[in-house]
């Protein structure tokens, strides 16, 4: 572009606004008439609005704005009322939905009596009851897991082949309650868990198909009690076990009593017992029977424990290791009276956390 053209373009851009203003004055200039009496130029009546017309328009606009404001206010009020109503309906629906659960829980508790100690938090609720059916004495612990991580299974600090009391496990992990878990076998001065044992979703020594009367019992990833006999790892893996141990026998399945093997009816007939079961709402019930010796003259029979769990409305239940292994820890103290005179070191314990 030449210097002349640049100068011309600059003047065109600079004078464009003034030229536009002049055109507006020429094209839209109002007609004027001379008032001879006042010698003033007055606008000629034309398309421009009069003061009265402008006033009427302003009045209409004010009325319209007032109506719009009122409509908006009414809509906002209706919205708030609707929101409040919906909130009330949601609260009522939530209350109604929880009512069957509350009724069911009261029904369970009424069969157990009145808890003499309670642990309650956002993660777990544990109620401790005394049992005295007549032929034996013991305790029941009803557990509601609000968080699946509020329960786990521990191994001794020194690992496989070692053992520790349930009280030691409770103290070491900072748990609020605990019970003994699966059975064990002693070999070369070491104590090993029986059969299939799972900790943190991993098989401790691999999967072992159920044999004789042994069964697996534990918790899955959803915090539900699982158990029974498994012929293949695929069967057990399908339940997504998080932890669990093995012992004998199964006491209840799907709300029905299972047959107790003859051997376990008499070896011994009466003994300290630990059993764990679950209700249809997934709450747990743990029953611990007292016993001062293992010669069969104190404690409970498996049939008595099975019958107690059945009458309590438990759906599935499994016998855990008993005798001198039976341990119930609650708030840092030993609740039951161990038949060995003191707590027996065991390889696995179920722990509960606040």
Automatic annotation (TrEMBL):
It comes from the Bacteria. Residues 173-353 form the Phosphodiester glycosidase domain. InterPro entries: NAGPA (IPR018711). This is Exopolysaccharide biosynthesis protein. It comes from Paenibacillus stellifer.
